[in-house]
Amino acid sequence: MWGVDLHQGCFMAADVGDLHAVARREQDSTTLLKVVRCSCGWHGSSFKPGSEQYAEAFAEWEDVHVSRFPTPPGRLILRRDAGGLRHFLDGNAVHAGEFLELRLPKGVWVLIRYEWNWQSELPHGVMLLGGPAEEANCPSLLPDVVFQIPGNAELRWPERRRS
Q1: Which residues contact residue 23 at a Cβ distance below 8 angstroms, ignoring those fewer than 6 apart?
Q2: Which of 12, 17, 24, 43 is spaced 20 to 30 Å from 145 by Cα?
Q3: Are residues 63 and 100 in the same domain?
Q4: Where does 36-124 have alpha helices with state H?
Q5: 99 and 158 fall within a common domain
Q6: Do 63 and 106 have their domain in common?
Q7: Cβ distance 58 to 45 under 8 Å?
């Protein structure tokens, strides 16, 4: 899912016979078409999974629906730019491998590396863990944890980038 609090978009297969009639079965297969839907109930056009229409369906959700709503600070928002789909944080494009800070409970911020492969809906965070390699000054040997960054996670740019 992506978007803002009350307007989380996702790609879903719609049920055949759905009153909104946004997807139907192919005559020669059992593959359902997909549709972009918003948590508020809005839905866009249907498209065939794996087709070029993925970007068009997302653009419809962004241009026709969610662009009307303000972007909350500290959230990753999936948008388009000249390079295609990418996440933005506080109006700035986030690129794979960039470092962000993730807010944990009690106002604790930890440094994570942002990763997104365009294959999954949610981006991933990579957080380094401590260990003997840290004392040996070998940061490349530190273990790490990889996790999906939920759409409602609070993020910020590291201090050096904010100033």
Answers
A1: 13, 14, 15, 16, 32, 33, 34, 35, 46
A2: 12
A3: no
A4: 53-60
A5: yes
A6: no
A7: no
pLDDT in tens, the chain (163 residues): 555 555 666 656 644 344 333 333 334 344 567 777 777 777 777 776 666 666 777 777 777 776 677 677 898 888 777 877 788 899 899 999 999 999 999 999 999 999 998 766 689 999 988 888 888 888 778 888 999 998 889 999 998 765 5
- Cα separation, 148 vs 141, in Å, equals 22
Range of the domain at 50: 2-68
User: How many other CB atoms sit within 10 Å of the CB of residue 48?
Assistant: 14
- Those residues with Cβ within 8 angstroms of residue 38's Cβ, 6 or more apart along the chain or in another chain: 3, 7, 8, 9, 61, 65, 66
CB 57 within 8 A of CB 9: no
Give the residue from 27, 46, 68 where a domain finishes.
68
